[in-house]
Amino acid sequence: LGSTGLSRQRMKVLLLGASGLIGPHLLAGLEPYFDLRLADIKPHPDNRPITVVDVRSYDQVLTAAHGMDAIMNFTVVRPHHHTRSFQVNTLGAWHVMRAAQEVGIRKVVHTGPQLVRNHYDHDFDITDVPNAPGTGYYELTKGLSNEICRTYAKAYGIQTICFLFNGLGPDPSQLDYGTDFPPYTIIWQDLQQACRLALELDVVPDDYQDFDMTSFEGQGKYKADKARRILGYEPSEPWEDYFKRKI
Questions:
Q1: Rg of the Cα trace of the chain?
Q2: CA 56, CA 91: separation in Å to the nearest integer?
Q3: Are 184 and 214 in contact (CB under 8 A)?
Q4: What is the rounded CA–CA span in Å between residue 21 and residue 169?
Q5: What CA–CA distance (Å, rounded) separates 99 from 112?
Q6: Residue 74 has what DSSP assignment?
Q7: DSSP state, 242?
Q8: What pTM, to 2 d.p., does this model score?
Q9: Integer Cα distance of 87 and 140 in angstroms
Q10: Which of 39, 167, 219, 246 could anchor a disulfide with 185, C-beta 3.0 to 4.6 Å?
Q11: Rounded Cα distance, 185 and 90, in Å
Q12: If DSSP states are collapsed to H, E and C, what string results for 201-238?
């Protein structure tokens, strides 16, 4: 409750890709704080009500965006569908930013693959370096989407955060990751936290920031320092402890 005794109005958030591989895992950490409109082209795996939205259609994205305060875009198509992946990954991002501008939405959370690992895996203490998509088709479609989001954010003052991942999944207490954990991997609880912080952040430096997200910093290769500094993010536990050898 605020000083007036009234609770702060809950933000209304359009979650695109709500039935995909990531969206369903976000609900537990977001629904207590936000009013979510779940949108996808397929049914939700837990039979949640879904607004049918194909991000390839600007009109459908625009219609779903009306009345919303923010958009989270977790849609993706992998490169084995070349035409569809460009339409979803690249044109879909354009439709999201265009719709946000048209209806006056000032907050967007975008997502994609990390675009730095192949160039910095030999190094340590990597936290905020220029993205390098390379020549892979999937990386190019998502890299272009990032630049579309950046351009719209700066042109129209849309406060935009882009989360980039190498891996996502449950915490090590629920799943055996094997002998080590891959760099830039984030667990569901930490991604929920990061999304909540991104939505609640009033002003994004330079209107757009991307973050290579991780829950595991034990290797010392990739750090979450930028997310700490700007978002206030902190991995929920020192997850690398689960990989220490018993002696």
A1: 18
A2: 7
A3: yes
A4: 10
A5: 19
A6: -
A7: G
A8: 0.92
A9: 13
A10: 167
A11: 23
A12: CCCCHHHEEEEECCCCCCCCCECCHHHHHHHCCCCCCC
Buried b (16+ CB within 10 A) or exposed e, 10-36: eeebbbbbbbbebbbbbbebbeeebeb
Structure-block tokens of residue 20 = 């995909």
Cβ contacts of 142 within 8 Å, gap of 6 or more: 76, 89, 90, 112, 113, 115, 133
pLDDT in tens, the chain (247 residues): 343 333 468 999 999 999 999 999 999 999 999 999 999 999 999 999 999 999 999 999 999 999 999 999 999 998 778 899 999 999 999 999 999 999 999 999 999 998 887 788 888 888 888 888 888 888 999 999 999 999 999 999 999 999 999 889 898 887 665 666 778 899 999 999 999 999 999 999 999 999 999 998 887 888 899 999 999 999 999 888 877 766 6
Closest CA to 167 of 159, 154, 178: 178
Q: Which residue has the tokens 């160039």?
A: 119
Angle at 194 between CA 140 and CA 96, to 5 degrees: 45
**C-beta of residue 78 within 8 angstroms of C-beta of residue 21:** no
Name the residue with tokens 């479609």: 141
